[in-house]
Amino acid sequence: MQHLLRKQIILFISLLVISSSVFAQSDETFQQDHDELPYYLGMSMGLSNSFLSLKRGSEFLVPATGAANLIAPIQTMYLNLGLTGTLRLNNHFALRTNPTLLISGNRSTFTYTTNEPGNKSVQTYSIPSVIIDLPVGFKIQSDRYNAFKYHELMRHYLITGVKFGFDLGAEKSATVNSNQSYPNIIKGSDMALELGLGLSFFLRYATISPEVKFSYGTRDLRKVADPKYPLVTSLDKINSNFIYFTLHIEN
Question: What is each CA distance from 98 to 12, 37, 41, 78, 184, in whole angstroms?
Answer without folding.
Answer: 20, 18, 10, 16, 28
